[in-house]
Design brief:
Elements: H1 8-18, H2 35-63, E1 66-67, E2 73-74, H3 79-89, H4 107-120, H5 122-141, H6 144-156, E3 159-164, E4 180-183, E5 189-199, E6 208-215, E7 228-233, E8 235-237, E9 243-246, E10 249-254, E11 265-278, H7 284-320, H8 344-376, H9 380-415, H10 427-437, H11 444-455, H12 462-478, H13 484-508, H14 513-547, H15 554-570, H16 574-582
Helix pairs in contact: 1-2, 1-8, 2-4, 4-5, 4-7, 4-8, 5-6, 5-7, 7-8, 7-9, 7-10, 8-9, 8-14, 8-15, 9-10, 9-11, 9-12, 9-14, 11-14, 12-13, 12-14, 13-14, 13-16, 14-15, 14-16
Length: 601
């Protein structure tokens, strides 16, 4: 049976020591995040996820969801009861605005809960997962009436939310959507069309589901400039807040998927369903992007999550499974064989996983802090800087984080050898669940193009230059130190590769845009490698400072420095190889005509 222990010690290290959340106590919402409150949230969330959600992960995978003849959907055994505990405990309210019933604490703590939930049971976590983004979209673009009607119950968990973009004939190119919104003369619209791949589109966890739906009004431009956003409740809400009649939206089917079986990924049919416009007409995509960006950060956490749970199980197996002898001589002479943990190739995979998961956790939580600072920093300049840096990092957190998260999950399956292929060990589920993270909320190729085509050139490259300056200053400050200096020097070389790749794009992408497209994925990985390197330099610095004080858990901090050294040794060199691949451009990639790809009989 798979195991899961919430990584509360590492999380406290990042929140309290690396990010030093207490130092932001002068900002709105941070004053309630006292050290005691932080520890309580981390420890109790970890306990809930490990004890309540993790045991249901395999249940959800084996049972899946069931659609009934009336279009209703039931979730796997135990999910409804677990959600009732989740809702009653207020886990979804932590970083939501107080005015609508939230606790108003920093997004950093909300991200902590998201990670623990996704790691213990990704399919379950997806039910409330999109509600946070829906709340953000309604908060930014909704009318006061819409906010008052929907936000209190969405934040409390009494109702959940979804995001409806994709249709059978279109995915990323949303300008092609066909769903129509006909004005009804009373301020409402009749929504008609079909949406697919709708996570948590129908279920039995709550009495209402609030769908945010992209559609086109009559005469709207037949492009992305003609898209409007609508709020469409599953059950209509009366003026007094009570529930009325069922709306014209139904689940046509549940998608048959390779993973996340415990989540109902639905085809939703809208048949003249009553909806109300959110924001301005033909500007729905901008409003929806608020939700999409939140979802992308959430998926980056999912990439970390599946890597983490797979890593925990692989470590336990490697310590228990005995095969062969250590290359340097028997590690346990009294036994017939040594644990496979002693073999360098197994250790390679485990160290790769440890270096990635701890680095990605630091990056995700730094991203969460940037979300907070983009709204709550004291000056407009500070808020703008945080927002620009967050925008730059979002496709990296999602794209690089899920690419590597999947790689780690498959390598942890490899640690098990043949047993990793057998369902009872649970490793297959982690790999299958991890695979979707590279696809949804924008495939990772789309994330790479967003990074290189939009974020890099935005405002004359101000965000990437700010990142280079930030990293360069931290590297320079560390170079004179005996322990940190060697780490900083290796990171400096990788940062140089990153800067060179950026310059190559500046010189070659304008004359041939395919050069940008051909190198975007490599560039995203270069930036991911460098950004995690920056996280490890920061963590090593804090660890060294703590060791100077001779702490009780000395081994924890020593392991941080050792893992930082491993990351710099084994991850950073890849930046140079990726830059060289990027600089080959698109000529050989785009040279063949389509006929050359056909298989000859």
């Amino acid at each position: 049976m798979p195991i899961y222990t919430a990584p509360t010690r590492d999380t406290r290290f990042i929140v309290n020591e690396l990010l030093d959340l207490a130092s932001y106590g002068n900002l709105p919402g941070f004053e309630s995040a006292t050290p005691d409150m932080i520890d309580t949230v981390i420890n109790e969330a970890g306990k809930f996820c490990a004890e309540v959600l993790a045991p249901l992960n395999k249940v959800g995978d084996e049972q899946g969801c069931t659609r009934h003849d009336d279009g209703s959907v039931t979730t796997p055994d135990g999910f409804k009861e677990a959600f009732a505990q989740y809702q009653e405990s207020g886990w979804g309210t932590i970083s939501q605005p107080e005015i609508y019933g939230g606790q108003g604490m920093p997004h950093v703590l909300g991200f902590v809960v998201e990670e623990f939930m996704a790691t213990s049971n990704q399919a379950f976590a997806m039910y409330p997962g999109l509600t946070t983004g829906a709340v953000s979209a309604l908060t930014v673009a909704g009318t006061q009436e819409q906010k008052d009607t929907y936000l209190p119950k969405m934040i409390s968990g009494e109702w959940l939310g979804t995001m409806n973009l994709t249709e059978p004939h279109c995915g990323t190119d949303l300008g092609m959507i066909r769903t129509k919104a006909e004005p009804q003369g009373d301020g409402s619209y009749a929504i008609t069309g079909t949406k697919i791949f709708i996570s948590a589109g129908e279920h039995d966890l709550t009495e209402n589901i609030i769908h945010l739906v992209l559609a086109k009004t009559p005469g709207a431009p037949d492009s992305s400039k003609g898209i409007s956003l609508f709020v469409v409740p599953k059950v209509l809400v009366n003026e007094d807040g009570s529930l009325g009649e069922r709306n014209g939206v139904s689940c046509g089917s549940i998608e048959e998927k390779m993973g996340i079986h415990g989540n109902a990924t639905c085809v939703l049919n809208y048949d003249g369903a009553k909806g109300w416009m959110v924001g301005e007409e033909n500007k729905g995509l901008a409003a929806m992007f608020v939700m999409m960006n939140a979802a992308r950060l959430g998926v980056g956490i999912q990439g970390l999550a599946q890597a983490e749970v797979a890593y925990q199980n692989a470590v336990a197996y490697a310590l228990d499974r005995r095969q062969g002898r250590a290359l340097t001589g028997p590690a346990d002479p009294e036994a017939r064989a040594d644990p496979i943990f002693v073999h360098p190739d197994v250790r390679r995979m485990l160290m790769d996983a440890k270096a990635f998961t701890e680095g990605q956790r630091a990056l995700c939580l730094w991203g969460a802090l940037l979300v907070d600072l983009s709204h709550k920093a004291q000056t407009e300049e500070e808020r703008a800087e945080a927002d620009a840096l967050l925008g730059l990092l979002t496709p990296v957190i999602k794209g690089y984080g899920t690419d590597k998260g999947y790689d780690v999950a498959t390598n942890m399956q490899q640690v098990f050898g043949g047993h990793g292929y057998i369902e009872e060990w649970g490793m297959s589920q982690f790999v299958r669940d991890a695979r979707i993270t590279m696809i949804y909320e924008g495939t990772n190729g789309v994330q790479a193009m967003d990074l290189c085509g939009r974020k890099l050139p935005s405002k004359g490259g101000a965000a990437i230059q700010a990142f280079f300056k930030l990293a360069g200053e931290e590297i320079a400050a560390a170079k004179g130190d005996d322990v940190l200096g060697p780490l900083a020097e290796k990171l400096e070389k990788a940062l140089g590769q990153h800067q060179a790749a950026t310059m190559w794009f500046m010189q070659n992408a304008m004359q041939n845009p395919n050069n940008l497209g051909a190198g975007a994925h490599n560039y995203m990985h270069i930036m991911g490698i460098v950004t995690l390197g920056l996280m490890w330099l920061r963590m090593a610095k804090v660890a060294q400072e703590k060791l100077a004080g001779d702490p009780e858990d000395k081994g924890f901090y020593e392991a941080k420095i050792a893992t930082a050294r491993y990351y710099m040794d084994r991850y950073l060199p890849d930046a140079g190889a990726l830059r060289r691949k990027l600089e080959t451009g698109s000529e050989s990639m785009m040279a063949l005509g389509e006929e050359a790809f056909a298989t000859a009989a």
